[in-house]
């Protein structure tokens, strides 16, 4: 017997929604490409440039938690903890239990 909790169902539906959007619109595909470019820049330590790409991706899907959290991380890495805290709080307003945002908020608060 397999038990599926509400969290599993929610994640599955979020994934399904993302796939549907990705297949339907070229803008969504471009947004995903922008975000991948941003991730690459983050790994190189080029945070300011990464924020530009993340903002372009967020124009298509402004409530994408992963993207918003990554932008908060960039501000934190650029030594702007107040801005990062404000941005991560925006993510937590969308989903108060989003683990990556909670973890980042803890790191930001610890650094203050």
UniProtKB/TrEMBL annotation:
Subcellular location: Cytoplasm, Cytoskeleton, Cilium axoneme
Keyword Flavoprotein listed: no
Family annotation (Pfam families): TPR_2
One GO cellular component, as annotated: axoneme
TPR repeats: 31-64
Keyword rRNA-binding attributed: no
Highest taxon, organism lineage: Eukaryota
Keyword terms of this UniProt record: Cell projection, Cytoplasm, Cytoskeleton, Repeat, TPR repeat
Location (main, coarse): cytoplasm
Name this polypeptide is given: Outer dynein arm-docking complex subunit 4
Organism: Caerostris extrusa
